[in-house]
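PROTEIN DESIGN WORKSHEET
SECTION A - STRUCTURE
LENGTH: 255
TOKENS:
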């Protein structure tokens, strides 16, 4: 059994090394890039959290490639989503400790691959990807669900709050509320989990975000957007209970 596990680990290391080399020398067509990223997704998803030292070395070129501008800012939405998912997986594997701060993130990426990476680039990538996936079917949507699932694990929510990315948090809430009525109950549940965790992890919420919840929670919107309205009401109630007991009027207006 041990030799089988060892053989499996060696095989993953070899595959990781090869895919890292491929990513560092990107093919020209989006289709080939996506194919390479899909292989990367598969390999990363099979690596355990707190991977062995022997696995970290071949992981470094993958990290370096993923945070390079060519991929992080690629114009193709499928590429964006795949990169976001791969970075989610890498953060899971590396098991960063909370609380997260600017210096820790920069130092971690620098130690991993010799490159500095602005943490907000990753969250900008994720939020932009959420915003651009308009259809609730197809390959893009399926990939986006994987990112949503990874994002709802909690680590990334805590990270966003620790790093005080208020503008991106507002955009994330706005997007989730916008698509709630056209999404499955399972997807809405994950979105609700993410937004609830953000509220509970925050010391306070931006006024713009509170207003967004209040507007979407108004009863006169319930016929046109029933899921969105109910979701906004629940979140506003959590906000009132958790952070601001002085807004009963806003909550009752949304009831």
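SECTION B - SEQUENCE
RESIDUE ASSIGNMENT:
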């Amino acid at each position: 059994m041990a030799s089988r596990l060892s053989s499996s680990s060696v095989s993953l290391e070899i595959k990781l090394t090869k895919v890292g080399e491929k990513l560092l020398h990107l093919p020209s067509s989006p289709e080939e890039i996506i194919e390479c990223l899909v292989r990367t997704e598969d390999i990363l998803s099979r690596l355990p959290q707190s991977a062995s030292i022997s696995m970290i070395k071949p992981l470094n070129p993958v990290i370096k490639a993923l945070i390079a501008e060519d991929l992080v800012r690629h114009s193709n939405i499928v590429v964006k989503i795949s990169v976001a998912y791969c970075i989610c997986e890498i953060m899971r594997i590396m098991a960063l400790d909370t609380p997260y701060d600017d210096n820790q993130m920069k130092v971690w990426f620098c130690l991993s691959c010799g490159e500095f990476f602005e943490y907000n680039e990753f969250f900008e990538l994720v939020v932009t990807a959420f915003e651009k996936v308009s259809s609730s079917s197809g390959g893009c949507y399926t990939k986006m669900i994987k990112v949503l699932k990874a994002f709802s694990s909690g680590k990334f929510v805590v990270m966003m709050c620790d790093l005080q990315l208020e503008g991106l948090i507002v955009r994330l809430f706005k997007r989730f509320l916008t698509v709630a009525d056209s999404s499955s109950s399972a997807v809405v549940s994950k979105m609700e989990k993410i937004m609830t965790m953000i509220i509970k992890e925050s010391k306070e919420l931006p006024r713009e975000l509170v207003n967004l919840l209040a507007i979407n929670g108004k009863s006169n919107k319930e016929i046109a957007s029933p899921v969105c309205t109910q979701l906004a009401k629940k979140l506003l109630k959590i906000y009132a209970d958790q952070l601001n007991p002085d807004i009963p009027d806003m909550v009752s207006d949304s009831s």
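SECTION C - NOTES
The two ends are 59 Å apart (CA to CA).
Residues 1-5 have pLDDT under 50 and may be disordered.
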